[in-house]
Amino acid sequence: MESKNETNYLRLLRLITLANKILVIILRRRFPPNVLKYDGEIQKVERRLKALVKDPKLLHILFPPGDHYRGNFSELDISYLYQLLRFIGNIPEHNKRWGNIPEDTDRSMAANIERIRMIRNEHFHKSDVSLTNEEFRDHCNILSQCILELGGMTYKPKIDEIPILPNNAEYGADTNSPSRDGSTALDLPNSENATEVVKLLLDN
């Protein structure tokens, strides 16, 4: 039987999966709206990617020997999506620059992408697949806010499907309990990033 801490971990992974989908949509939006296949677009930036990307697995996916890229980015995980958004997404850096922890007050697209990457890496690389209630609340608040700010309120019902929000008495908090950065999972996004993703969210 799963312990509460293990259940916390599994629920957080579901939220990370939602964040992964958001990053796929954002990456697709970096390309012209009429593009249905991305192999040609990837070929246009081949030289740049090969100069900047150091991950041979990602390069193999994008530039398979004797073939061309046949995916639509949905097969990529957050670590790969992060690299593509950083190097070819034309997204302005957050105030601490790519690869560093952004300031809590920085709610830019780049800062939210950075937060998603960092939480994903922290939990995918740990050997102990469990989370204390405090860790769970903090990380769920951060991820929920990132998802809503990047994707808009369209994604709130999907977040609500996962029993993670801190109004659950099991976790000893209410919906206004702030995380360490002062946010709550139910804070409404006020971000220029949200509107550009909403249409694709409705289509997926």
Please tell me about this protein's structure.
With 204 residues, the protein is mainly alpha-helical. The protein has one domain. Helix content is 53%, strand content 0%. The protein is built from nine helices and no strands. α1 packs across α6 and α6 packs antiparallel against α7. The radius of gyration is 18 Å and the shape is globular. The two termini are 34 Å apart.
Task: Write the SSE topology.
Blueprint: H1 4-28, H2 39-44, H3 46-52, H4 56-62, H5 78-88, H6 109-124, H7 133-151, H8 156-160, H9 192-203
Q: How many E strands?
A: 0
Largest sheet: none
Low-confidence stretches: 165-204
> Using only CA atoms, what is the Rg?
18 Å
Supply the number of helical segments: 9
- The helix/strand class is mainly alpha
Order of helices and strands: HHHHHHHHH
What is the general shape? globular
**Residues in β-strands, percent:** under 5%
Mean pLDDT: 81
Overall number of domains? 1
In which range does the helix fraction lie? 40-55%
Terminal CA distance reads 34 Å
Key terms:
single chain; 204 residues; mainly alpha; 9 helices; 53% helix; 0% strand; disordered C terminus; HEPN_DZIP3; DZIP3-like HEPN domain-containing protein
